[in-house]
Fold:
Amino acid sequence: MSLTLTTPYAAPAPALAPREQETLRHIAAGRTYLQTARHMGLSKHTVDAYLRRIRAKLDITSTAELTRLAISLGL
Structure:
């Protein structure tokens, strides 16, 4: 399942890849980048890259905004 977001003020955002969704879920649950990386079997740098892509796709600048988004989406 692909996650596609829309907001009333912006054009539809690109869909997040499954691993990006999983990364977002871990960060929203309060895990650090390192904890997320270990849980997903990735390096911390890969988690950082996923989060940079998510932020770029969704035009989000902070972890707090990412967390709020994940919670509102039920992730």
